[in-house]
Amino acid sequence: MVRTRIAPSPTGFPHIGTIYQALFDYGYAKKNAGQFIVRIEDTDRLRLVAGAEEKIYQSLDWFGLTEDESRRKGGDYGPYRQSERLKIYQSRALELIKNGYAYYCFCSKERLEEVRKRRAQEKKIPMYDKYCRALSAEDVQEKLSSGLTRVVRMKVPENTAIKVRDEIRGEIVFDSNTVDDQVLLKSDGFPTYHLAVVVDDHLMKITHAVRGEEWISSTPKHFLLYDFFGWERPLFFHTSLLRNPDRYKLSKRHGHTNVAWYQEQGFLPEAILNYLALMGWSHPQGKEIFSKEEFIGLLELKNMKAVAPVFDIHKLEWMNGEYIRNLEAGSLKSQLVRFIGKNYDEKLVEKTIPLVRERMKKLVDYMPLCSFFFETPTGYEIDLSAKKDIFVKMKEELNKLNDWKAEPIGEAMLVLAKRLNVKNSEFFMSLRVAITGKKISPPLNESMEILGKKDCLTRIGRVIAAGP
RNA sequence: GGCGCGUUCGUCUAGUGGCCCAGGACGACAGGUUCUCAACCUGUAAAUCAUGGGUUCGAAUCCCAUACGCGUCACCA
User: Fold this and answer.
1) Of all nucleotides in the shown strands, which has a C1' nearest the CA of A423?
2) CA-to-C1' distance for A116 and B2, Å?
3) Residues 6+ apart with CB under 8 A from A186
4) Which of A212, A239, A266 is where one domain is finished?
5) Averaged pLDDT for residues A17-36
6) Which chain B nucleotides are covered by protein, judged by CB under 7 A?
7) Is strand B in 7 Å reach of the CB of A88?
8) A47 touches strand B (CB under 7 A)
9) Are residue A382 and residue A357 in the same domain, yes or no?
10) Domain total in chain A
11) What is the rounded radius of gyration, in angstroms, for the C-alpha atoms of chain A?
12) Chain A residues 413-432, Cβ below 7 A from strand B
């Protein structure tokens, strides 16, 4: 049985990196007919953001990465929110103390600060000096009963090599002297990530822990904890961090991390997933475009690369364009209608789709291309005032047409251009601007057909009537 | 600074000792198609496989060192 999880902390908008993690977690679970779990890591009370948890679920649904177990879905291993599991962590912390693997620490923030400063001056690693480890049992008892604030720290063994295993990179060895006596239980009774993740992964029977590379350096703490508890540990896979073109870790300051941004731009969830799948993983046949299902069938976590890829928005846009072009017409229409809002005639939108689908990379590209279908242009990108004679002739010829279809329209105009001895490009550009207001537009004849004879003649008439 | 991870075209990558004077994709550029822009088709440029040493008949692939990049060193996750 394979069980995977994402463990986001509800500290803001859903991050694209969380989706990246979720894709591999979800994919691997599904490939093995296992479960994918969402556990909310809300142990940092100061950084909580209201509503963030809901947004995480909504994003997962949007991407089609819906979890099997979570607070909203239920499951046999709940609660799925860490703030509701406090008693579990507390008793586990006590257990560690009892067995000599952890100890109470009464050091004040000020003292810790001082220790850190001193060690920094001595050019040593800024870590805890283990002062409270040496406290006598009586001392501890006394401080405890006097109600002194305290935390629980893990007792990291000295002078040993801690071997951890990452399934992507292999064995990594750490010198235990470089591993801090990590706080496990904070003074507010909440666990730190390190205690919580180990306890929860074990209790929730997680088999494959997929998480970001930033966790590698704290993995020795986690391995130690598993040993302290005498638990079997899951397999660990540290995926590399997504980076910006400037090579830093993808962050709010440096790039687009907010899932909402991708939605606002009109990226399709399938396209984003496909793109994300190509970061650190590649299709065995070198395919670039493939479905989520195909990805799941082929996914092997071990084959992931350990290099941090740069997130290339241009390639994502190309891929999104591919998806838009391959979308079934009805599906494109409904997505487009949802995207641009209900104020537009759905039938009209439907008619325009064949003209613009290969011209859009994102749904947000639709309106700039098609607004002229919905409202008469108010300005013209080219000055048409010198061409009024041509427009008069155009109007005449068009007016004669009974069969208002793209082809006859085009033919009639071609004939006229030749008769007037005007270059095609110049002739059609004038007409284009008169009809659409713009130099760049969907195919003209087809657009005019959709617009209708009356509307087109009116638009040309406006140009003729305009001064000077 | 300590520790850790990483390093193949601008970017994502293929490559696990001979099939690689390194293949694909995006992007760029050029041409074709064309009433615009796209899409589509064809082609071009682009990687001394970070550098330097080994090992080997043979290395992008194995080993070592150096450089560079990133991550991490909290009662944040």
Assistant:
1) B35
2) 14
3) A43, A151, A192
4) A239
5) 96
6) 1-8, 10-16, 23-27, 35-40, 69-77
7) no
8) yes
9) no
10) 4
11) 32
12) 424-425, 428-429, 432
Structural domain that includes position A386: 376-465
Task: Give yes or no: residues A221 and A90 share one domain.
Answer: yes
Same domain, yes or no: A224 and A249: no
Chain segment A342-360, per-residue pLDDT in tens: 889 999 999 999 999 999 9
A287 catalytic residue (yes or no):
no
Same domain flag for A107 and A39: no
Is A383 a member of any domain?
A: yes
CATH of the domain at A178: 3.40.50.620
Any domain includes A80: no
Token representation of residue A154? 């893990």
CA–CA separation, A304 and A239 (whole Å): 7
Active-site residue, from A117, A252, A405, A418: A252
Q: Which two tokens stand for residue A1?
A: 């049985």
Label residue A105 left, alpha or beta by phi (over 0 means left) and psi (-120 to 50 means alpha): beta
What's A452's domain CATH number?
1.10.10.350
* Among A72, A6, A80, A9, residue whose Cα is nearest residue A43: A9
Note whether A322 and A338 are same-domain residues: no
Average pLDDT over chain A reads 93
Task: Judge whether A342 lies within some domain.
Answer: yes
Residues A6 and A53 in one domain: yes
Residues 97-136 of A with CB under 7 A from strand B: 107-109, 112, 116, 123, 125-128
Are residues A120 and A249 both part of a single domain? Answer: no
Coil, strand or helix: which one is A287? coil
Q: Pairing relation of β-strands A208-212 and A183-185?
A: unpaired
pLDDT band at A467 (very low <50, low <70, confident <90, very high): low
CA-wise closest residue to A198 among A82, A72, A51, A76: A82
Compute CA distances A57 → A98, A169, A456, whole Å: 39, 31, 48
Beta strands in A48-158 (DSSP E): 102-105, 151-154
User: Among residues A363, A357, A362, A317, which one has the least CA distance to residue A337?
Assistant: A363
Residue A166 near residue A216 (C-beta atoms within 8 A): yes
Residues A90 and A234 in one domain: yes
Whether pLDDT at A147 is above 80? yes
Tell me, yes or no, whether A270 lies in a domain: yes
Q: How many angstroms is C1' of B12 away from CA of A120?
A: 40
Q: What is the pTM of this model?
A: 0.93
In whole angstroms, B2 C1' to A171 CA is: 20
Per-residue pLDDT, A197: 97
